[in-house]
Amino acid sequence: MKAAAVVYKPVGMVVGALGGVVAGAVFKQVWRRIAHEEDTPNATDEERGWRQVLTAAALQGALFALVKAAVDRSGATAWRRVTGVWPTG
């Protein structure tokens, strides 16, 4: 039982990294639609105001957390289907 959890660690890391890539792509698409801009604002963009920078950061954080949780949960569910063991930690 513990061996399956240990083996899941690298799988979970890969799944998490893929989730980060997906979250970044989702954020870019959502930002393009709501702001009608190609580029997402960075905190150091001189031409961007506080409101725009902080709104983008909050949206990016929320979407990242949502996508990461969905991807991590899907990975754990798939792991249990394959191994019969829910990954821990």
Q: Biggest β-sheet: count, sense, barrel?
A: none
Q: How confident is the prediction overall: mean pLDDT? A: 89
- DSSP helical segment count: 2
Radius of gyration from the alpha-carbon trace, in angstroms: 17 Å
Based on helices, strands and strand pairing, what is the structural class? Answer: mainly alpha
**Count of distinct structural domains:** 1
Poorly predicted regions are none
Strand content: under 5%
Shape verdict: elongated
Distance between the termini: 13 Å
What does this protein look like?
The chain is an all-alpha fold and 89 residues long. It has one domain. The protein has two helices and no strands. Helix 1 (2-35) packs antiparallel against helix 2 (50-83). The longest helix has 34 residues, at 2-35. The radius of gyration is 17 Å and the shape is elongated. The two termini are 13 Å apart. The model has no long low-confidence stretch (mean pLDDT 89).
